[in-house]
Amino acid sequence: MKTYRHYIGGAWVEPSSGEYFDTDNPYTGEVWAKIARGNAQDVDRAVAAAKAAFEAGEWATMRPTARGKLLVKLAEIIERESERLAELEVRDNGKLIAEMSLQTKYLAEWYRYYGGMADKIEGAVLPSDRPGMLNFTTHEPLGVVAMITAWNSPLLLLAWKLAPALAAGNTAVVKPSEFTSTSTLEFMDLVREAGFPDGVVNCVTGMGIEAGAPLVEHPDVAKAAFTGSDMAGQKVYESAARKIMPVTLELGGKSPNIVFEDADIDAAVNGAISGIFAATGQTCLAGSRLLVQRSVHDALVARLVEVASQAAIGDPMSMDTHVGPVTTVPQYEKVLRYIEIAKRDGATCVLGGKPYTGSGSQGGRFVEPTIFTGVTNDMTIAQEEIFGPVLSIIPFDTEEDAVRIGNDIVYGLAAGVWTSDIGRALRMAERLKAGTVWINTYRAVSFMSPFGGFKRSGQGRESGKEAMMEYMQTKSVWIAQQMATGNPFVMR
Ligand code: NAD
């Protein structure tokens, strides 16, 4: 059994309460590590360390080029350690090794990209309408950034926040999900090895209310970058509003994946499957509402069921597994609850619809890949985020219908469109209210491409150039070339 403490000021420290909680392997149900149970006192210590590192010492005076080099060094260390990190995500999270061994290598790109950007953020000299005045802008870091992440992709969600925040010169206190803290904690050793000064990155673990909330509320925290449910995101937003503090919120989704009759049906079926069954449906960007044009509905459903029913369910450490376990006990219960709601509401279950207990399931929390047809967009399973391997298929007739149904939801994280008509593809991209629109593909994300939500799916963007500015504030500097002698009571 491994025991993990908080990482504060460059050292591993005991939780002030002395308390720890268990983390288990979703595949076996076996408890394999103990995690420090943080509280407001631990948060105080971590924020103090981050504040001290921001205000004085090596980091406070480090030039952007040097910060960039540290980030690039971290990227190299991540690549070296990627296999170990991947195995850790599998053990703690139930993620597939087939996906994680690619993702943990790819993580490095965020650190490399923002490392390169660190010394390319330029202010401007503005054309002045005042004779004898020079006006220029600079972009400065914010200070201590609270980074709170969800359990589904701990290291990826952290990279989206940490890489731009550090490139901009901020310091960080990270609070990973209580369900999957270990990869983030192990990552702290890599940060230290890369040479980041003590206190620049800190990690406090624990429950949302006990450690996350005091972190967001802390008076010395200058920004919160949060990934999680819209319910918790709303709480974070409320706390931030009380302090007039900026936030980035990456929240839930209920994304439409829309198949037109002129689509390549095999490609669309692949996209539908990757949209809902990859990562066992536990992704914010899941294409959980499959909108299918009525003329191809039956043929597509038949093909989809045929392909999805061949998914190999079982050991996430096997390269041949397609669907792994559900990560947490509450999530497992929630997915099964939604399946019952769908049946009660009159949707037709054409695949799955129950726990998987067949070969390879061990003691794991498995739900069969589940497909419902006959879903209308006002049903609970079409409107609420399930965050599991449950697909709702909704028929539509015209392009106009597809837009209306696609947008008829509180969320706006992503959307997919399958069509061979380029005009239609562009019209749909314009009309769908979502932060990301994929045409004839699904689930593509990159360090270069801004990602984030419209509507209740969030605030702000992660990745790409835009994310860098989420961690900076602009200062406007005015210099008079000669001393002012005019009327001091009149604004000029
Ligand atoms: P969650 O909201 O329960 O928890 C997320 C994090 O917030 C955890 O670290 C938790 O401890 C913390 N937290 C909870 N309450 C808090 C509070 N009051 N103050 C501060 N912190 C608090 O979400 P989850 O179940 O871990 O993750 C699943 C959700 O995350 C889904 O809704 C999913 O769509 C969303 N998600 C979004 C994105 C995105 O990029 N948009 C990516 C991944 C996951």
What does the model show?
By secondary structure, the chain is an alpha/beta fold. The protein has 2 domains: 270 residues, Aldehyde Dehydrogenase, Chain A, domain 1 (3-Layer(aba) Sandwich); 184 residues, Aldehyde Dehydrogenase, Chain A, domain 2 (3-Layer(aba) Sandwich), CATH 3.40.309. 39% of the residues lie in helices and 21% in strands. It has 15 helices and 23 strands. It is globular. The protein binds nicotinamide-adenine-dinucleotide. Nicotinamide-adenine-dinucleotide (NAD) binds next to α7 and α8.
How far apart lie the N and C ends? 68 Å
Name the overall outline: globular
Structural class: alpha/beta
The total domain count is: 2
CA-atom Rg in angstroms: 24 Å
Identify the notable features of this structure and list them briefly.
six-stranded mixed beta sheet; 23 strands; 2 domains; alpha/beta; single chain; Aldehyde Dehydrogenase, Chain A, domain 2; Aldehyde Dehydrogenase, Chain A, domain 1; 492 residues; globular
Q: Which helices and strands appear, and what pairs or packs with what?
A:
Layout: E1 2-4, E2 6-8, E3 11-13, E4 20-24, E5 31-36, H1 40-55, H2 58-61, H3 64-93, H4 97-117, E6 125-126, E7 133-141, E8 144-148, H5 154-167, E9 171-175, H6 182-194, E10 201-203, H7 208-217, E11 221-227, H8 230-243, E12 247-250, E13 256-259, H9 265-276, E14 289-293, H10 294-308, H11 329-344, E15 348-351, E16 370-373, H12 380-383, E17 390-396, H13 399-407, E18 411-412, E19 414-418, H14 422-431, E20 436-439, E21 454-455, E22 458-459, H15 464-469, E23 472-480
Parallel strand pairs: 1-5, 8-9, 8-11, 9-10, 11-12, 13-14, 13-19, 14-17, 16-17, 19-20
Antiparallel strand pairs: 2-3, 4-5, 6-7, 7-23, 12-22, 15-16, 18-21
Helix pairs in contact: 1-7, 3-4, 3-5, 3-6, 4-5, 7-8, 9-10
Residues 148-152, 157, 175, 177-178, 207-209, 212-213, 216, 227-229, 232, 235-236, 250-253, 284, 385, 387, 413, 453, 458 line the site of nicotinamide-adenine-dinucleotide.
